[in-house]
Fold this sequence. Notes:
By secondary structure, chain A is of the alpha/beta class. In chain A, 41% of the residues lie in helices and 17% in strands. In chain A, strands 6-5-4-7-10-16-17 form a 7-stranded mixed beta sheet, sandwiched between helices. In chain A, strands 11-8-9-15 form a 4-stranded mixed beta sheet, covered by helices on one side. A 3-stranded antiparallel beta sheet of chain A has the order 1-2-3.
Amino acid sequence: MIPTIEWHGQQIRMIDQRKLPSKIEWHICKGYKDVIKAIEKMVIRGAPAIGVAAAMGMAIGARAIHAKTTAAFIARFKEIGEEMVHARPTAVNLRWAVERMRGLAEGMADHPLDEIKAFLRQESEKILAEDIENNRKMGMHGQGLIPKGATVLTHCNAGSLATGGYGTALGVIRAAHEKGKKIQVIADETRPWLQGLRLTAFELMEDGIPVSVIADNAAGYLMRQKKVDLVITGADRIAANGDVANKIGTYQVAVLAKTHNIPFYVAAPLSTIDSTIKNGDMIPVEQRGPEEIYRFGKLQIGPSGVMALNPAFDITPAKYVSAIITEKGVIRPPFKKGIENLLDDRDLSG
Amino acid sequence: MIPTIEWHGQQIRMIDQRKLPSKIEWHICKGYKDVIKAIEKMVIRGAPAIGVAAAMGMAIGARAIHAKTTAAFIARFKEIGEEMVHARPTAVNLRWAVERMRGLAEGMADHPLDEIKAFLRQESEKILAEDIENNRKMGMHGQGLIPKGATVLTHCNAGSLATGGYGTALGVIRAAHEKGKKIQVIADETRPWLQGLRLTAFELMEDGIPVSVIADNAAGYLMRQKKVDLVITGADRIAANGDVANKIGTYQVAVLAKTHNIPFYVAAPLSTIDSTIKNGDMIPVEQRGPEEIYRFGKLQIGPSGVMALNPAFDITPAKYVSAIITEKGVIRPPFKKGIENLLDDRDLSG
Lengths: 350, 350
């Protein structure tokens, strides 16, 4: 599998996900503003991958700071973090990564600047490595939920490309496949960006996992035909009560799963949990431009001047979620208590 | 509004709906096989429009029959009908139109062939005119269900372009607009053919009715945000119990409407009701090629060799339908009785 993002000398390079699968092309970031732009423009996407990109972006930003004192350095570093956090509003991993980097810098305030800068770069590499490791753990915990021979429906791309590597939802699917469970996948194409068709199908085909793509509007039909055994998606932010923000369309897949008595699982690292937020209604939902709906590449497909609504995410209330799969294990309802327990554990072990 | 289909001298011409809205182009049919091909390839689509096209196609087919006896003529005419009926399997209007034309020919068996042929052409014109008239009546009956200022969600295109003119679901919307109700429309883009984006938005914008397009996967989010007051769609076939076959995605919109306590209405002429079929599970659902999912025009957008499932329709059980709007009035549940009553009425008056 091609890496999602990596250091390349003094630069960051990431696969331009807007061009997949027809072109595999590196996108180079030389400064932190390039990283912000790459996140905004969806060169890189997926909550955990955005977190990794933000950490690397902070490190590259730190390197370029010319400050006479550590205090001045940290003040400027915080400003960069503020800019970075606003690149996209929904995925909380962005803020999580920025805060982790800021915390490290502040904790090293009595070290020489060059040392802080070097540690920040190392920390970004550590965040990348941990992310992959967490995904493997999620896979290990989550694959137990997938019966042999099951057909799994997934929405958007919560795969290797959405993370440092291996994937959250697709990590669980990969782990079940590696166990020899002979599963197959139905991938919602996921308009308007078609991450399911372009990225999920591409990743799974590379791994030899059978996958069929469907239009987003066919999920209900297939569930009613008993062609779907379970659903797994990723998450962009999970509130303290277990409400889940994820790619637009996740909510209606969850409602349909409930209607058809099909389990609906969410796989996400603990860094996706935002315990400062009581419930999902408080999660900001990014509204993107209408041209993503009425244009295809440079080709206009809708009538001139057409209006479009383009929410990029939606909120799935916890009552639709059968379980949340994390690197520390599987959380079952009631989620509030389960999340608290795991986060306490995270604080102790972190 | 541009006409969907019309006689043009000895030929049939129809707007090529695959090219809208960027190109307004006539597609010419010189023989009945051209009409079959146009239906198969979706040059023309929408159950009532397919019915009109089939009737015209039968008339053009009749004209070309060289037969020595009326019996030979009718035998050949029936064969053409058999071919026509198989152009697409789900919309019952196709069979309805073919049977009406065949019935006319058989009823005229003692007339000269030229006279039969002329009557068949007239009958096809009558079917077109009746379709438009029926849509206006549906609009009149249905608009009472739309409150002032309502936001109406619709799926696919059940508009002027799906019919002889005016539209079924969009006919109801047009009638409410003409009453000055200041409504607005949310149009599901309706993958893979994007009839909502390309046709519904185009039609409504021409009429000055406010419309916003959404990805199919955003309907649930908007319903949860209380941005949708009611749903109206068309139908391709309605079973005796009120189960509705319609464009893929209709079923899940209906489930979502139910979940959010939003009324879900279906607008269709009586010719869409198939009283020979007890329930929706007996309606054949057309499965179309995977390339409609992974290609956009000639551009391949998915990975090479990707598999895709592409059901063109789905079945919405009657329990999700709040009412069926027909040219004879609004049918409320229980639909079986209501449909029987209206069809009895149809037999008497027709």
